[in-house]
Amino acid sequence: MKCWTLYLVLPGRFGPLISGLLTLITLTALQFALLGEVFWVSTGIFFAVILSYLPAVHAYILEITRNAILELRSNLLMTDEDIADITERMQRPEAKFQIGWLVSGITLALLHINFMGFIPINANGELDFSGNLVKVTIAGTLLTWCMMTTVISSLIQNSYLIDDLTNHLKQIDIFRKQPWQPLARVAIASSLALIGSNAIFPLLFIDSGTEAASKILPGMALSIPAVAAMVMVPLATTRRKIAAQKEARLLSIDQAIAKLPDPKTHVEMQSLNTLLDQRNHLQRVSSWPLNLGNIGRLLFYMFIPPLTWVGAALIERLVDGFV
User: How far apart are CA 245 and CA 243, in angstroms?
Assistant: First the structure.
């Protein structure tokens, strides 16, 4: 069975985009019908955006991952059947994993609901679930946490599968990083799930009366390890292989230099200079299979959430100044 979030996305090149827009329109209309004008001062906008974003970005990242595997195919010592099995496991995780992710999501959602305390208490001292706003908020919180735990866990699991693929690379050329850029694209694209979600959080504070975002800053900070895992795990084995090859070459050069402690002839001087140049060049080679373009893209993605938070704070101050 496919990961349940993928059933919410239409097939085809533009399936994620179309599905995201349709889900956004449907959830917005449904919540507005249930809540009326209250929708605009609730977390309804946040629920509509994040629940339409996560399935779409999950399918988009899977497509990038499949394309990356195809690009790496010529440099992998694997059969077509083995590669097909791995790509199948990426979109069809075992049922026990999906159930575990859902249980984790429900548990975190219930803890969140209890912590925030947005369920009112009636005159008898009991929790009041009668209002549509309470029902929508509970449903939205449950769906959001279940979807986030599923998408994030699935992407991290897929990162480990990609890393396993790199154990079958035919060769590693530390001077040519271009063959490893498919790995870098997968690593960076996977971070979009969390980075994009964090960028959506300011919607929670639109005219909601909630104290600014300080209440969920700890939650955002907890997402940093997950982003780090998504970026680092697919590159871990390749990085170790590059580092090992770099160290072996440096050791070989150092041994060759040790044989020329006191060069006297012109030929010996030339050999020593060549060895020194090679060592200096090797020492500057990074063990990470990332080029400048991918590093720049990752830095750009990392700046998106802080920029949205600053923008939301400025808009809030501007609105407060006019009201």
Answer: 6
Question: Cα–Cα distance between 155 and 193 in angstroms, integer?
Answer: 9
In tens, the pLDDT along 146-180 reads 998 999 889 888 888 888 888 887 777 777 766 77
User: Any idea of the CA torsion for 237, 242, 248, 252, to the nearest 10 degrees?
Assistant: 170
pTM (2 d.p.):
0.80
Chain centre distance of CA 132:
33
Long-range own/partner contacts, residues 261-269 (CB < 8 A, 24 or more apart): none
**Contact present, 44 and 28 (Cβ < 8 Å):** yes
At 320, the amino acid letter reads D
Q: Is the pLDDT of residue 18 over 90?
A: yes
Tell how far CA 127 is from the center of its chain: 37
Q: Are 128 and 121 in contact (CB under 8 A)?
A: yes
The CA-CA-CA angle for residues 34, 37, 38, to 5°, reads 75
Measure the CA–CA gap between 169 and 234, rounded to whole angstroms.
Answer: 13
**Distances from the Cα of 24 to the Cα of 32, 124, 139, 151, angstroms:** 12, 38, 16, 18
Neighbours of 46 (CB within 10 A): 19
Residue 155 token pair: 């992407």
What residues are paired with 169 via a beta bridge? 76
Is 197 in contact with 148 (CB distance < 8 Å)?
Answer: yes
Residue 99 has, within 13 A of its CA and on its CB side, a CA count of 3
**Residue 214, pLDDT above cutoff 50:** no
| Alpha helices, DSSP H, located in the chain | 15-35, 44-72, 80-91, 95-116, 132-165, 181-190, 192-200, 217-232, 236-258, 266-284, 292-322
* DSSP conformational letter for 261: S
